[in-house]
Amino acid sequence: MKTLFFVLIASLSLCAAPRTLTLLDGNDPKSYGTTVRLYQPTPYGGFGDEQHRLRITRNGKVVKEWKDFSIKPLYTGDLDNDGYTEVAILEHSGGMLCCFEIYIIRIRPEGIRISWFQFFNAVGARAKDLDGDGRVEIVSLDDIYYNDFGMSPGDSPDIEVVFNIEKDDTPHLRPALMKRYTKPHYYDHFTSDGPFFLTDKMKNYEVSASTELIETVLFLMYTGEAAKAIKAMVRYARFDKDFDVNETLQRLIESMSHSIFWPDICAVNGWCKASASSMKGRGVCEPLEGKAIIRTLRFAKEVLMENP
Ligand SMILES: [Ca+2]
Ligand SMILES: [Ca+2]
Question: Between 35 and 143, whose confidence is greater?
Fold first, then answer.
């Protein structure tokens, strides 16, 4: 009975204590004395403000500490295959869909460097070397579109992206890996030939077909198949008379131009100024103005409308 009592007390104390995760141990030779620890409040106790804390120390001295509504580990290891360790974390500052940040903490002999970039909705973000080339891919949602289609967050379109973080901290899309791993559920339905129809699942779950369409269209544009995207929209517009291809295109291009992947989207579709695109390679795509792209795409649409 006495033993049971002590076990009970010990369990209660454990429940009340915040959970501590050591993301990087200062004894690891590749840490150069850097320890990265995450303190997570427990559901029934812990921090009074229920916030997560991340603390970075080097040789026992605190060099950085911050707290937010939610901080989750994303990856610890060599993210970009340069021989040095990175710690990637996902921070959520609150709100239903907004705002998430991915932080990259670079551990180097001379010190640490922290950079970050923002996602609207990064629920379920994960990191893994998908193609075995030594560079780690991050898979997450690019959800900038929920603001732009006048829909509730649950119905708004989003796209699952696969990207690498370069040594200069810029994210770069991996369209080929997206084709292999993140095809939207209704991809085949929207890209096949013949008249469009609602599937039983679409009817049963009252899924907005145009949201599903936009997700497929985004996927096609992010992976360099804009012509196929237009074809899917034209086919759908014959089914849904309220669907305006021109208007949707315009909103899509405008929204896309706010994505952190916009230079990549332009590069993969060839929407770059001639002088820049002729050089090929990364970082040289100077995007066309949105209006010029819309003109090109509308022309493609007119051709398709006349020759289905
Ligand atoms: Ca590295
Ligand atoms: Ca890889």
Answer: 35
